[in-house]
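Regression test case RT-17, inverse folding.

Input:
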């Protein structure tokens, strides 16, 4: 019996994948949101803060691509986090049309305090003893998205770990 016979038709495979991904999305969004609630931080704001922590001094365009969010929602999140003193938004010396985004000392402290709580969510998924297993699953999902040509806002997605996680 081959894999297709065991699972069913291709449309059933797609249906199962859609349901599984949606359930995981909702569960992760809820779990992360619950961890961030006490700090009055949204999941979108956390995505931005955690991405900035991995590569400070990058542009809004970079962060929009890296987090698969639209520039408008990230612009609002940047403004809110700047108002709270967690982000700094400086004009680029090389290109005055763009801004470079970085964490303030308060933003770095908040990231260091919250990151272990978010990491515990990944551990709670219990996907095996290796943390790399979750990374492989994320890469497989990104690869699948790139294969069907549905990356960020209709653009082809990337399956490069560097583009996804940095």
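Golden output:
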């Amino acid at each position: 019996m081959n894999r297709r016979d065991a699972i069913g038709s291709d449309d059933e495979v797609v249906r199962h994948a859609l349901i599984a991904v949606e359930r995981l999305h909702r569960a992760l969004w809820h779990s992360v949101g619950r961890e961030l609630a006490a700090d009055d931080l949204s999941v979108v704001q956390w995505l931005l803060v955690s991405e900035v922590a991995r590569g400070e001094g990058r542009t809004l365009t970079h962060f929009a691509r890296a987090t698969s969010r639209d520039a408008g929602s990230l612009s609002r999140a940047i403004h809110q986090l700047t108002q709270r003193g967690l982000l700094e938004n400086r004009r680029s010396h090389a290109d005055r049309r763009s801004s470079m985004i970085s964490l303030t000392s308060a933003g770095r402290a908040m990231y260091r305090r919250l990151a272990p709580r978010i990491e515990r969510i990944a551990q709670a998924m219990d996907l095996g003893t290796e943390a790399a297993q979750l990374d492989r699953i994320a890469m497989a999902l990104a690869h699948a998205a790139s294969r069907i040509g549905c990356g960020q806002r209709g653009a082809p997605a990337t399956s490069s770990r560097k583009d996804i996680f940095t």
